[in-house]
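WARN retry 2 of 3 for item q-0093 after timeout on previous attempt; input resubmitted unchanged.
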Amino acid sequence: MIVKKCDFVTSAAQYGQYPESDLPEVAFVGRSNVGKSSLINSMLNRKSLVKVSSKPGKTRLINFFLVNEELMLVDLPGYGYAAVSQSEKQKWGKMIEDYLTTREVLKSVVLLVDMRHKPTGDDKLMYDFIKFYRSKVIVVATKWDKIKKNDFKKNMELIRNTLNLDENDKLIPYSSETHQSREELWEIINQSFQ
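OK item q-0093 returned
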């Protein structure tokens, strides 16, 4: 997809604050330090539309971005960040759960995991949750540029086996630095709208 225009629309903490729109949405979810903001900026071919921070846990609301006036990318709060209170974690969890289970225009969910590490228990819980409500998951293994070539196949298999991906799920390696796999990810997202 050629991104000609993209704009921040709004931030929301609950259902009544979501933008009124019938455009298809694709949501991005993952651990706080998985590189979600960087990946969305890479996909949109922008440097800083989505705020990137060196400190994990900065996305605290659901952020909506309008792309080419034809679809919405949705940045969900990160999960699994230890340096916030238990009540804050629960609030974020409820926010994510409510969005994923109630948003009718949501067409696709992209779960980000860090290619350098085995998926966490939180990653597995999120995968299972998405599968239960959505049946298909696009899993993106981020930070592809940060691993050795020799480790690529082994790490991808570790992700596939730990999450117990099935044949309907897509697993894509991605580098926000080099934009490697950007076109492939857009193609898979576009297929989910049909």
